[in-house]
Amino acid sequence: MAEYVIYETVAVLQINNPPLNVLSHHVRRQLMSGLQQALQDTAVRSIVIMGKGQIFTAGADVKEFGTEKALSDPSLPTLVEAVAASNKPVVTAFHGTTLGGGVALALASHYRLAASSVKIGLPEVEIGIVPTCGVSQRLPRLVGLQTAVQMIVSAQTMSAQQALTTGLLDKVVSGDLLSEAVGFAKSVEVQALADRRVGSRAVPGADTAEDVLDAARKRLVRRSRGAIAPLTCLQAIQASLLPFETGMKREAELGQYLWTSWQTGALRYAFLAERTVKRWYLPGNKTVNYRTAEPLVINSVGVLGAGTMGVGITICLLQAGLKVVLIEANKTQLDKAVTLIQRSLGGRSHSKQLSHQAMQLRATTDYRQLGEVDLVIEAVFEDLALKRKVFQQLDSVTKPQAILATNTSGLDIDKIASATQRPDKVIGTHFFSPANVMRLLENIYGRHTSPETIATAMQLGATIGKVGVLVGNCPGFVGNRMKGLNFTEAMFLLEEGAEPQDVDKVLEEFGFAMGPFRVSDLAGGDVHWRRRIQAGLTTEQGPPPNTPLLYRQGNRYCPLADMLCMQGRFGQKTGAGWYRYESGSRAALPDAVVHRLILKHRQDNGLQRRNISSQEIVERCLYPLINEGFRILEEGLAAGPQDIDVIFLLGFGWPRHTGGPMYYADKVVGLGILLRCLEKYRALHPRSAHWVPSSLLQTMATQGTSLTAWAAGSRL
Ligand code: NAI
């Protein structure tokens, strides 16, 4: 609801709809009636709009999206325009985080003041829509095009101080917001309103407008990679150069265009999926779930192995305020890691001026220091025998109730757990690199992992700002198991006629930040080469004895990646991989050596070159991965398609505007078309098992069932 109180000549309308003060229909109705009452009351000379509780308002009520209520009178646009038309000065005073619709109300007001801790943001573009209710028209008039682009198109949040500097705010207050707002409103009661109406101003710096918009457009074409919302938002901002009423019409048209686009649906799905996966459960036993299992309290964590992952994991644990004991076998590596961690946390190494977070770190080579920690995350080399040995040691040095987690990227959790006397307390916590940046935490339960251990790992993810996704135990788990197929097919395309840059370009146009070959060069080709050697697929000298070059372990095999690694071409770190890199540069340059290697490989093995269309590249690289996702659901290794989608959105840079692989298959490609495509490629490539359609997909496609509807029915 919204409360109406009079302070002498000032009417104060306070939004009171906890916890986020969203502008639901009943709140809008009360605000409108308060506004009308204040306009009619001759004793009232000014009006303040503010919020009670934690924040001013988080904006429109997402639950009303697409329902009658969103349009019921007064709609948000009607309320905003009533504020703008007021003939008594309206002051919006905000605090906490002010988003979307709250910003619209503020921009329509005649004055804006805010608490010094305020954060102001327009996140609409992230769910694929234009900020409407006049935001795209008023904001550029108030703060200029450059800042408006930053706020609307890049969804950058602003602090109170920044908002004051740009002119969005008239005043920042540090005292009591209510009394400051009332005092401010009184002080402007006699001021003329004409030039306070943002809609009647001209956009400042209109003479350089085209340059600003052109530069933004060029940047966006490069960055948005197929997402339509950023460029459409830019068009709305551009319309602010037109007369206000014309611009408002354009804003409404563009808003409608995005609102009805499939990308908005995908982005809203992605937003909700990140929340859905928190409601975890075991697909095979739904009684074990987020409601029934209690997490243990974790105050201190041990991290074992201070390499790439150990360092990143330690940083995010410390940033969340946890105590960390970091153990590393190699003293030189340990010292290097400590310096990196301190630098990252803003403290200076070898000085007493360490940040408070860095002071929570104890770094040592002595395992016995792990005696008191509540949980250990192991991040030593990816070697099962080593991990089993290390878990045995951990079992003996840690307290009996401590949880033992492994950061393995694909080894069998049960085999690691069986090295301990507490398999119920062993779990996989798979971070993604760089671990202090990537928001995904893939948590893997083994056969004996207890509900309490699962709940604790999921809670730990939330504590350190990650999105935890619970999955079952299988080689590569969900993410790496599916992702591997993408690279396999990308290499087959090279054998059939494509060049690495052709494949990368098509997948980058699809929306990935980097195509598979650039990713491989960045991560280091040797990592997967070592895994293929361990899996017996190849050796350091070439194919294992008596093995056909193009066929391994029952499937078609492309040896090109092995051939590059045998030449020491591991990617960026060696200056050459699928591409070449000039010294000090990360720019991937097509390489004649790779071109000749592929050509010779084709000739030696009688492989015919043909032209490969962009569509085939997308289908070949993405559909096997999606098919594997269906198999994962069929095998009960993930609770639902949302879990798989979140893994790909947050862990593998899958373009968010397509919703993730499973959503894309269901809503964009269509399950019937996907099935027919898999069958076509299965006939053409019978020696690749990944083209055999999963039975779940076959059933759904034949029955015309939607994956999203199927998932909604089964989710807790
Ligand atoms: P790394 O090679 O950078 O670091 C491993 C560290 O463990 C080294 O510093 C090594 O000295 C230390 N170590 C080895 N044996 C030890 C022992 N017995 N006691 C204490 N320390 C020991 O490896 P990285 O990349 O950090 O990987 C670690 C784990 O994380 C592996 O299981 C890997 O598969 C997994 N992982 C790696 C990702 C990546 O992108 N690098 C991503 C996700 C998981």
UniProtKB/TrEMBL annotation:
Keywords: Fatty acid metabolism, Isomerase, Lipid metabolism, Lyase, Multifunctional enzyme, NAD, Oxidoreductase, Peroxisome. Its EC number is 1.1.1.35, 5.3.3.8. CDD domains: crotonase-like. One of its GO terms (cellular component) is peroxisome. GO terms for biological process: fatty acid beta-oxidation. It is found in: Peroxisome. Pathway: Lipid metabolism; fatty acid beta-oxidation. GO terms for molecular function: (3S)-3-hydroxyacyl-CoA dehydrogenase (NAD+) activity; delta(3)-delta(2)-enoyl-CoA isomerase activity; enoyl-CoA hydratase activity; NAD+ binding. It catalyses: (2E)-hexadecenedioyl-CoA + H2O = (3S)-hydroxyhexadecanedioyl-CoA; (3S)-hydroxyhexadecanoyl-CoA = (2E)-hexadecenoyl-CoA + H2O; (3E,5Z)-tetradecadienoyl-CoA = (2E,5Z)-tetradecadienoyl-CoA; (3E)-decenoyl-CoA = (2E)-decenoyl-CoA. The keyword Cell inner membrane does not apply. Residues 476-581, 617-704 form the 3-hydroxyacyl-CoA dehydrogenase C-terminal domain. The keyword GTP-binding does not apply. Pfam families: 3HCDH (PF00725), 3HCDH_N (PF02737), ECH_1 (PF00378). Its main location: other. Residues 301-473 form the 3-hydroxyacyl-CoA dehydrogenase NAD binding domain. Monomer. In the C-terminal section; belongs to the 3-hydroxyacyl-CoA dehydrogenase family. This is Peroxisomal bifunctional enzyme. It comes from Branchiostoma lanceolatum. The lineage of its organism: Eukaryota, Metazoa, Chordata, Cephalochordata, Leptocardii. The gene is EHHADH.
